[in-house]
């Protein structure tokens, strides 16, 4: 229980992603371009080469418009109305590289930006904006063979319904019918759902590009809803893992092993997750060490040697965070695990906080070693 409380405080501390410190002495370059996350044909919102974002909203009868930024909509940018009833504004400082959720607050009401595509986060469909990253090449859409992300509906007797998951199968899966694959069960964070890793995280493109470059042996990724959003953000300390553990271990894994060409054993099965999904990974891997051999916590806490004592030893433990989160805790924890004889790896994403650029980079670092480290 103490672990959950610490992570909750951690999430709140890193929830905003706008950097104001650089704003005072910076001259804003007028090289703004539409965000790559815009609706087709929409010119706004726009981003520039420095990481500033600019917004435009047509609402002539509105009295006040604010653009919320960061996890949970804390902070934001007030827009100004011109004589034609068009509201515009630019962030006070450059934003971190990568993807961000946001929404509009218009006269006290919450709305999505009609210029931007929507992504499920903060327990609702939020507008999304992409700040170009210096290393975006690794998750860019390229002219390489592509895998498939398919929706599956699996029976769940414990919840008396059919539940949804998305399964990434690598290029060549449908042709190489005699080959079986390892599996990574990859969880989203609180407020998100099973669409997050594909839509916001570009997990499929990261995998496609790594496979095309010959940097990894292909594996499947399974993404399902972690049953976390039924509790409010402030009540996450009371989240119980039991129901989701049953769905994942007793229902989803057998379904995947029966319907996909997997190597259906502990050695070739991994679990990982970001933020709340990391907390779920932490609990389930400790409860079910006979099911998973490789663990990954992405901004989702740490393991200690004491927690792992008495359990079947994992083949790999991967722990990551952004440099604006609590990187010392990650590197210290991994050092302690190594000292205790565990194969542990840390990764710190430079210049990012509790956001998808941290987790995209984490998956990129994790994938090549996930099923090769022993």
From TrEMBL:
PANTHER family given in the database record: DIACYLGLYCEROL ACYLTRANSFERASE_MYCOLYLTRANSFERASE AG85A (PTHR48098:SF1), ENTEROCHELIN ESTERASE-RELATED (PTHR48098)
UniProt organism field: Algoriphagus yeomjeoni
Pfam families linked to this entry: Esterase (PF00756)
This protein's name: Putative esterase
Keyword Lipid biosynthesis: no
Keywords: Signal
Record GO terms (molecular function): acyltransferase activity, transferring groups other than amino-acyl groups
Signal peptide segment: 1-21
Upper classification of the organism: Bacteria, Pseudomonadati, Bacteroidota, Cytophagia, Cytophagales
Highest taxon, organism lineage: Bacteria
InterPro entries: AB_hydrolase_fold (IPR029058), Esterase-like (IPR000801), Ig-like_fold (IPR013783), Ig_E-set (IPR014756), Mycobacterial_A85_antigen (IPR050583)
């Amino acid at each position: 229980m103490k672990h959950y409380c610490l992570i909750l405080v951690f999430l709140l501390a890193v929830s905003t992603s706008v950097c104001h410190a650089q704003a005072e002495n910076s001259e804003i370059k007028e090289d703004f371009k539409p965000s790559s996350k815009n609706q087709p044909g929409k010119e706004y919102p726009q981003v520039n080469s420095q990481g500033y974002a600019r917004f435009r909203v047509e609402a002539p009868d509105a009295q006040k418009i604010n653009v919320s930024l960061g996890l949970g909509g804390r902070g934001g940018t007030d827009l100004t109305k011109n004589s034609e009833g068009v509201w515009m504004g630019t962030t006070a400082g450059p934003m971190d590289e990568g993807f961000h959720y946001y929404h509009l607050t218009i006269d006290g009401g919450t709305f999505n930006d009609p210029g931007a595509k929507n992504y499920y986060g903060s327990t609702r469909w939020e507008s999304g904006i992409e700040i170009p990253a210096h290393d975006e090449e690794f998750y860019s859409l390229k002219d390489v063979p592509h895998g498939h992300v398919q929706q599956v509906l699996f029976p769940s007797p414990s919840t008396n319904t059919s539940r949804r998951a998305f399964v990434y199968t690598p290029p060549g899966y449908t042709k190489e019918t005699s080959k079986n694959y390892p599996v990574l069960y990859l969880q989203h964070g609180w407020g998100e759902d099973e669409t997050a890793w594909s839509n916001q995280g570009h997990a499929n493109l990261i995998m496609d590009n790594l496979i095309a470059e010959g940097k990894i042996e292909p594996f499947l990724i399974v993404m399902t809803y972690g049953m976390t959003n039924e509790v409010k953000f402030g009540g996450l300390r009371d989240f119980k893992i039991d129901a989701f553990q049953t769905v994942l271990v007793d229902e989803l894994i057998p379904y995947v092993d029966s319907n996909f060409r997997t190597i259906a054993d502990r050695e070739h099965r991994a679990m990982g997750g970001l933020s709340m999904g990391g907390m779920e990974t932490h609990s389930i891997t400790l409860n079910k060490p006979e099911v998973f051999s490789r663990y990954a916590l992405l901004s989702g806490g740490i393991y200690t040697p004491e927690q792992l004592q008495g359990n079947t030893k994992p083949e790999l433990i991967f722990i990551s965070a952004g440099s604006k989160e609590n990187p010392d805790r990650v590197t210290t924890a991994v050092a302690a695990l190594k000292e205790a004889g565990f194969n542990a790896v840390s990764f710190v994403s430079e210049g990012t906080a509790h956001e998808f650029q941290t987790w995209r980079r984490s998956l990129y670092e994790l994938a090549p070693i996930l099923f090769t480290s022993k």
